[in-house]
Amino acid sequence: MLSTFSHPVLGQNPAVLRGFVTDSLSGQRLPGVGIRLDGQPQGTASDAAGTFRLANLPAGTYTVRATALGYRSPATTVTLTAGSTQTLNLRLSAVALSLREVTVSQPRDPNQSVAAISHIDQALRPVNSAQDLLRLVPGLFIAQHAGGGKAEQIFLRGFDCDHGTDFAVSIDGLPVNMVSHAHGQGYADFHFVIPETVEQLRVYKGPYTARFGDFATAGAGEFTTKTSLDRSQIKVEVGRFDTRRALVMLDLLGHNKHHLLSKKPESAYVAAEYNFTNSYFDQKQHFQRFNGLAKYTGQLTDQTSLTLLGSHFTSNWDASGQIPERGVAEGLISRYGSIDPTEGGSTSRTNASAVLTTGLPHDAVLRQQAYYSKYDFSLYSNFTFFLQDPVNGDEIQQLDNRHLFGYTATYEQSTQLGSRSLHSTLGVGTRNDFSNLGLRHTVRREVLDTVTTGKLYERNLNAYLDETLPLTEQLTLNAAVRADVFTFDFRGQLYDTTSLSLQPLRGRVTKARVSPKLNLYYELTPQVQLFVRSGIGFHSNDARGVIRGTVGQNVLPRAIGYEVGSTFKPVPSLVVNAAVWALHLQDELVYIGDAGEVESTGPTRRFGLDASVRYQLTPSLFADLDLNFNHGRQVAAPKGANYIPLAPSFTSIGGLTLKRPSGLNASLRYRYIDDRPANDDGSITARGYFLLDAVVSYTKAWFQLGATVENLLNVEWNQAQFATETRLPTEPVGTSVDELHFTPGTPFYLKATFSVFF
To answer: 533: buried, middle or exposed (CB in 10 Å: 19+, 13-18, 0-12)?
Structure first.
């Protein structure tokens, strides 16, 4: 952290201090770095182009300091004369993490109320999988079912977000959630991300930030991959259940020893990983995944930078699916067995993205991104076994063949209003999904008949205006409004058997939603920030439900959220974030992919308390704790039948992490989620669990050795759980049982890792 001492000469023409912040190793510009001057109450932060500006400064001598977690820069002394403009280049070097250097305010993006917490977690927590990346979101739980290649079930703030219906995820500006997906609305498959390439995570809880639209009700997570590599790396991992993984990351330019498009700072690297596992089920999973990534970042001119990204991902697997409790109790299958051993699937995604960031006159910045994704998905599932078809069984295949085009642009500018600086962001964007969707009835992956098939076109046009203004030296106002317009177009190619008309499901509907936001931040002291936040958000409904008309007017059901809280440091090495929150959802609409129908639970209301604590006990030992209390109910349902199925009421995550200068790192972590109702009346209970995981590694200049243990106590636990009505092949035709079905969680699992750096 850098701070400033100033000795201004008053009564003269004000001066201007401007400059840019760069990484000392790669030379790349660094956005979001806090800049402060001693003697001046208001600071600023570097913008999207890595530049900053401080105006209306009295003539005098100042010591400039920059604030960025995990970075340090020597103090820079500058003398400003009356009416002058001076430019600085602040070069930041990576350093060991110290919580004493963590600041609680976010001058450029105050809505990151858990920024200090998430930055600490990124620096401390071991990340070896896409699942680990999602777990970096404070209070977020995930559950896997139907094979390792399928998107995880997400739990956050009292939501069973299914696979992403109420939590928006993006990576390098690419949207992860899929609208009107074959399996479920908002389906967020994050497995196309190589975990070692991720550099930053920005977490936004609640619907308070105008940059996010669809699905950002419980919150949003923005992941960013590295702009450059400190060094190249080869990694090999071997674990139980025939698990193998290989990773290669290669720096292509050697820290500006070579150039591609300009003679200014550039970086380029490629990364690839291969995964294989048979997993712990009786039915071998034969899971395979390949990921490849190439990224270029370059400063084309002093005012222009370009980022190019391309990636490809493919995966296929066999799965055991969810199993009924009675099947295990009666000895029909083991705990790791399967009723239908032919479940599984395959998926792939290819991405291309270009980002052009341009500095404009009057200290404005224009950022433009164009992106494209080609996505394919095929999933075989059997949720009800032999309930619908006693002879062949109820296995289905869900198909999604999609092209996704998008464009976003933001214009940022800071304007002086007297002695205050108004920061304005104007954003516009469009997303266009073209997909062939299908639902088939299958037996042992052979097609019996097609239930539905059709062509989807869904477009979102959006714009937002975000204003941040310091009202006083301590009080900051953030006000914003967002407008979204959706076009839902679906052209069914078969008769719609769910409709009385027996005509193909076809139609086009356009709906709009305006979402205002209002947030206040008060810096009581440099160690205590208070906040009050409010906003309206939404999640869109599946296009097939919109066209069919089964959702009524709830095409874009509204979410109203508000919270009050604080981020503070009671002692220098302790960071705490706490918030009391509420969220009212107009309608919880879920697309049931196996039935091709939309299910509505009506309006819901949730209240909760989030608390996150990060403490540095010694220079090498860190402790963390997340506590999340949630209370949610269906508003229109009668008492006793108004539970929100699978919504957790209490979750907790925590652990100890050791980071020694010698290169020895270790972590012991726990996860806890409580029992919760699996259906409306609470007659079926999803079972909670407590798990311990451990990681240890030893790192030197050219190599790293490590080991990971999941479920250290070898607990029998249920991962994904559902209340489902099913019939087993041994049960009489016409009968069924409604009970808990689950995917068993990982037993004791050991994995060894070896890396070479060069």
So the answer is: buried
Spatial CA neighbour of 120 closest among 145, 142, 103: 103
Residue 447: other Cβ atoms inside 10 A: 11
Considering 107-116, 127-136, 228-237, the range whose residues carry the highest mean pLDDT is 228-237
Q: Which two tokens stand for residue 498?
A: 């769910």
Can you tell me the distance from the alpha carbon of 746 to that of 748, in angstroms, rounded to the nearest whole number? Answer: 7
Look up residue 166 and give its two tokens. 């109420």
Please report, for the chain, how many H helices and E strands are present, in that order.
4, 47
Alpha carbon distance 522, 531 (integer Å): 6
Q: Are strands 15-23 and 85-94 parallel, antiparallel or unpaired?
A: parallel
Task: With CA atoms as reference, report the closest residue to 288 among 248, 311, 321, 318.
Answer: 318
The whole-model pTM stands at 0.90
Rounded CA separation 458/555 (Å): 13
Confidence band, pLDDT 50/70/90 cuts, at residue 16: confident
From the list 458, 460, 461, the residue with the least C-alpha distance to 545 is: 458
* 686 and 741 Cβ atoms separated by less than 8 Å: no
Query: Which of these ranges, 349-353, 408-412, 720-724, has the smallest mean pLDDT?
Result: 720-724
Pair of tokens at residue 26: 């790669």
CB 399 within 8 A of CB 375: no
Q: Is 377 helix (H, G, I), strand (E, B) or coil?
A: strand
DSSP of 224-253, one letter per residue? EE-SS-SS-EEEEEEETTTEEEEEEEEESS
| 579 in Cβ contact with 564 (< 8 Å) | yes
Report the 3 state secondary structure along 514-549: EEEEEEEEEEEECCEEEEEEEEEEECCCCHHHHHHC
Give me the sign of the Cα torsion angle 672, 674, 675, 677. negative
- Name the E strands within 676-736: 676-677, 685-686, 689-699, 703-710, 718-726
2 pLDDT above the threshold of 50: no
Q: How far apart are CA 402 and CA 278, in angstroms?
A: 29
Question: Band of the pLDDT at 595, cuts 50, 70, 90?
Answer: low
Phi, psi (deg, nearest 5) at residue 241: 60, 40
Rg (CA), the chain: 26
Of 55, 52, 41, the closest CA to residue 92 belongs to: 52
Q: Mention every residue, 6+ apart, whose C-beta is less than 8 A from residue 277.
A: 148, 239, 241, 242, 243, 244, 285, 287
Nearest Cα to Cα of residue 359 among 757, 99, 87: 87
User: Which DSSP string do the residues of 79-102 spell out, in sequence order?
Assistant: EE-TT-EEEEEEEEEE----GGG-
Residue 295, both tokens: 């990224």
Do 733 and 390 form a contact (C-beta atoms < 8 A)?
yes
Q: Is the pLDDT confidence value at 359 over 70? A: yes
Backbone angles phi and psi of 328, in degrees to 5: -75, -45
The Cα–Cα gap between 46 and 210 comes to 20
In the numeric block, which tokens belong to residue 412? 């940022």
Which tokens go with 4? 């400033």
For CA atoms 226, 227, 233, 234, give the dihedral sign.
positive
Residues paired with residue 267 on neighbouring β-strands, in sequence order: 297
Q: What is the 3-state secondary structure (H, E, C) of 141-189?
A: EEECCCCCCCCCEEEECCEECCCCCCEEEEECCEECEECCCCCCCCEEC
- Residue 632: both structure tokens together: 């949610």
Contacts 24+ apart (CB under 8 A), 354-357: 354/306, 354/307, 354/308, 354/309, 355/172, 355/173, 355/306, 355/307, 355/308, 355/309, 356/304, 356/305, 356/306, 357/48, 357/49, 357/304, 357/305, 357/306, 357/307
Look at residues 107, 109, 89, 106 and name the one whose alpha carbon lies nearest to residue 18: 89
